[in-house]
Amino acid sequence: MSTVTHTPAGPDQAPPPDRTPGPRSAVGGSRAGAKIFNGFSHLFLAVWAIMVVYPLLWVVMSALKTDSEVIRKPLSLFPETLQWGNFTRAWTEGHIGDFFLNTILVLTGSVFLTMLLGSMAAYVLARYDFPGNRLIYYMFLSGLTLPVYLAAVPLFKGVYNMGVTLPFLGPNSHLMLILVYVAWSLAFTVFFMHSFFRTLPDAIAEAALVDGASHSRLFFSVMLPMAKPGLISIGIFNVLGQWNQWYLPTLLMQSVAGEPKNQVISQGLIELSVNQGYKSDWSGLFAGVTMAMLPVLIVYIVFQRQVQSGLTAGVSK
Amino acid sequence: MRHGVARFVTGFLALPVGLYLFYVVWPFLQAAGYSLTDWGGYSDRQQFVGLDNYLRLFSDELIRKAFWHNVFFLVTVPLFTIALALFLAFLLNVGGREDKAGIRGVFGSGLYKVIFFFPQVLSLVVIAVMWQQIYRADGQGLINGVLMKIGLVDADDPITFVYDPEPFLGVPAVLWWLLVIAVWSGAGFYMVLFSAAMQSIPKDIYEAAILDGAGRFHTFFRITLPLLRDTVSVAWVYLGFIALDMFALVYIMTPSQGGPNHASEIFASVINFNAFQKGQFGYACAIAVALAIFTILLAALQLRITRRERIEY
């Protein structure tokens, strides 16, 4: 890792002789071979990059066309005139605006509570010895392998029965969805934060207790701040996971007494794709997809380093 | 003092454990219970039928289809995604020029990584709705449109994608088209994962190999790949779970959520079909329990196969 610059090698740039020690030039690939391979790498990587970006770009650009243009010139990436009206139509008539509001309401509560309750449980399970500790830990762990479809029917029934006595916890209620999201995110959050809290040093905890801190103060003012890297990782994981959740809302955010549904974005988008299809409102559908897609992409591009390491850390734990 | 600890522990655990018990554990247990009844889901009438539902599983043609379709995804999704991700990571990290410090990544690898990761942050629903438009069976679809323009596809006989139940290599074409989407959306994430693992391999191992005269292909296949074993097996386990959960794509994209003519049924869609369309909740729960047992066995098997001593450096 020393003196090399990053400029790509020009065709006439012969390698300095002292750079290629004997054995390698004899056995390893030659310079020309390396160059061909380098070119091939770029070609293939570029092709894949286009395959990723082109469909996304096509969706965004189709959202700016008129309906007849979507049908006449489906492939062009350059709309004749930019139809911003598609976005307002999807936002109001397609109810994307309502979907966003519902999603944000739910996620604000659910992500905060998931992080808080998840770290509390993980902390106690990781650092305190009490009867039943292992049992509770394995109970959380088992939730990681069981498919959500198994619970679907009884979960719906449980929520429905709850709604008969307590309507604010019944189907179609924001608070209910928040609690369901929290419960279903706890398994992985506890699992992840458990391994994180175990690695924190004992000495600091003991010092704080000797200084007269209570156990909960020790947690909130000492241990939680020390677990910040882990919290960021699992936080990103939960935000994306809950934003993308579609099965639970489709199951639970159903209108029971005829009141309008409080759909979240993924659920709403599914219905939008059906409805706009009937109405042949293709540009409106593209606008809806674009609006669901762009905020996440922009947040990702701004925080790409954190998001990449946060999500990959979630897997390699 | 001990008393204070007990109160603290209970106080911290009460809410999370309570929520988890009510919304996750209890439904699971109930599902296991309902699987022994003939409950229809809408009435209050239910009768204990013992293991009848489970026996019925074995003669259900739909379940057999769903099982093989799940196995198909279980094999192909990890296989193709990991192969492509490894290949991209290889090009990204080894494709650059060689110099004294070994072989460097290609120019612009940071940008490639950002782009390849895009599908991972999009929700499965956005991806499904987007690909619905890409896969349209007329000139308005992206793929058909392009192929018609260059004359590879006849406008009267377009590719029908998810409406195509005809078998290709013994598997309905619709499943292959769904597989393409799964690989498209997963490859970037695992490439970033493998890339990070490749970069955490100490440089001196490569330096030693290069001194010994190994070229870039040798170093990759003899050193990098074996050292990536752990990461690849973790990826395999995760992709296995994703493969079991192709339901979003089946639900949104295929005709009548598992069609055409049940050609794309998987466990989850069969559960959905039996519970909410045929009104056989008891039977649907039995399928779900079978799926859960299948998943747990699979996870145990995978952990057993992939367990090996860790290499520390």
UniProtKB/TrEMBL annotation, chain A:
PROSITE patterns (alphabetical): ABC_TM1
Subcellular location field: Cell membrane
CDD domains named in the record: TM_PBP2
Location of the ABC transmembrane type-1 domain: 100-303
Membrane topology field: Multi-pass membrane protein
Membrane-crossing segments per the record: 43-64, 99-123, 135-156, 176-197, 218-240, 282-303
SUPFAM superfamilies reported for this sequence: MetI-like (SSF161098)
InterPro entries: MetI-like (IPR000515), MetI-like_sf (IPR035906)
Region (Disordered): 1-27
Keyword entries, A-Z: Cell membrane, Membrane, Transmembrane, Transmembrane helix, Transport
PANTHER family to which the protein is assigned, alphabetical: ABC TRANSPORTER PERMEASE PROTEIN MG189-RELATED, ABC TRANSPORTER PERMEASE PROTEIN MG189-RELATED-RELATED
Family per record: Belongs to the binding-protein-dependent transport system permease family.
Protein name per the record: Sugar ABC transporter permease
Organism, as annotated: Micromonospora gifhornensis
TrEMBL record, chain B:
Annotated Pfam families: BPD_transp_1
PROSITE patterns: ABC_TM1 (PS50928)
Keyword Cell membrane: yes
Subcellular locations according to the entry: Cell membrane
Gene3D superfamilies from the UniProt entry: MetI-like
Transmembrane domains' residue ranges: 12-29, 71-94, 114-134, 174-193, 232-253, 281-301
Entry-linked InterPro entries: ABC_transporter_permease, MetI-like, MetI-like_sf
Ranges of residues in domain ABC transmembrane type-1: 67-302
Alphabetical UniProt keywords: Cell membrane, Membrane, Transmembrane, Transmembrane helix, Transport
Membrane-topology descriptor: Multi-pass membrane protein
Keyword Transport found: yes
Signal peptide from the UniProt entry: none
Family: Belongs to the binding-protein-dependent transport system permease family.
Protein name: Sugar ABC transporter permease
